[in-house]
Amino acid sequence: MSMMSPEAASPDLWSTKRQFEQVSPASLAGRFMRSFWQPIAMATQIEPGRARPVHAFGESFTLYRTPDGTLNLTEFRCPHRRTQLSTGWVESDGIRCMYHGWKFGTDGQCKEVPGEDNENYIRRIKLKTYPVREYLGLVFAYVGDGEPPEMPRYTAFEDASYLDVSTYFRDCNYFQNIENGIDEVHVNFTHSTGLFEHSGLNEEVPQVEAEQTSYGLVAKGVRSDGRVRETHLLMPNILMLKLPPSAEGENEWRNYISWRIPVTDTLHMTFIVQGVSIAGEDIDKFIAARDEVNAQIAALESFKDVSRRVMSGEIAMSDIPPRPDITGIQDYVTQVGQGEIVDRSAEHLGRSDLAIVLLRRMWERELRALEMGEPLTSWEVPEMLAPTKGL
Ligand code: FES
Ligand SMILES: [Fe+2]
């Protein structure tokens, strides 16, 4: 009688197990994601002299900025009796816990324990700290093991005349949104109204092609007249594409880059940087218009509540009056509609899922290498990588 495990008997079973979805430090995908620099906050979310909790990769951290502007990332809890460090006081050279005043330097070293005179005891207490850097309006951190790799640069965004930085949460596993980003056909249906309606992209369903590249993959939406829209997936979780102009004074399509960051298995955040081609007074107009749109959105029923009402059958998508954040609602409904963690073993993939199949293969190969202790692929971002709008 064969003693082979089901995995050995059928290698395909490996890929149907829940591998990509896992986020903990012990999981393969969690380790893989942690082997890259990843954004964990917008730079504007953390002012000098302030601290805040950060929940990412199934873990929690304390992010603080000393009064001179330097960012620090450290453990979530105080080693004394475990309260949240982010509620404490940021000082010029570290952070002090709110509960009993223990003080930690920016290198994590405990410096003061009020009421304790045993210096040796104090010296033995140290917080874990993580490398952290500010870039393109985001706070990037390296929370993996060992020395961090060199931080990649995205020069097309460094040169942009204006950078618009934003973030949002979505109540499903982060990998569903990674897959969504290279899903060219969903634009025709999910976004049949709203942002893409008059973009010229939705007139016909494109033929999907995909190729592996030095940085990940390029997904192509090929139209019958030969026009091609290129969307880039930069390993492991970055999407780069072009979006139609939507602001006054904006003539060019925007360069868009985003990172999908797991919070827990069933919640993720996206950090978005958009290079907008506007200059001078148009920048002020852009900011004023954006703030106004955000105020409009804040006055409406939340996108999440609306999406939930669609998913429960209380209303239909077509019942939603026009609103500026309709694209996010459309994506929320389809992605959260897949289930908090989609059951990939029950899917039926087709021709239009080519890019997603390629992405999964590439991820599987990396996760297998990690599991076997073999070297991972070293991805390279070309100097001026830029997507094409396909028009
Ligand atoms: S719990 Fe932080 S000082 Fe006591
Ligand atoms: Fe979408």
UniProtKB/TrEMBL annotation:
Natural source organism: Croceibacterium atlanticum
InterPro entries, per the entry: ARHD_Rieske_2Fe_2S, Cholesterol_7-desaturase, Rieske_2Fe-2S, Rieske_2Fe-2S_sf
EC number, UniProt record: 1.14.12.-
Main EC class the enzyme belongs to: oxidoreductase
Gene3D superfamilies hit by this protein: Naphthalene 1,2-dioxygenase Alpha Subunit, Chain A, domain 1, Rieske [2Fe-2S] iron-sulphur domain
Protein name: Phenoxybenzoate dioxygenase subunit alpha
Keyword set includes Oxidoreductase: yes
A Pfam family matched in the record: Rieske
Residue ranges of coiled coil: none
Gene Ontology molecular function: any one: 2 iron, 2 sulfur cluster binding
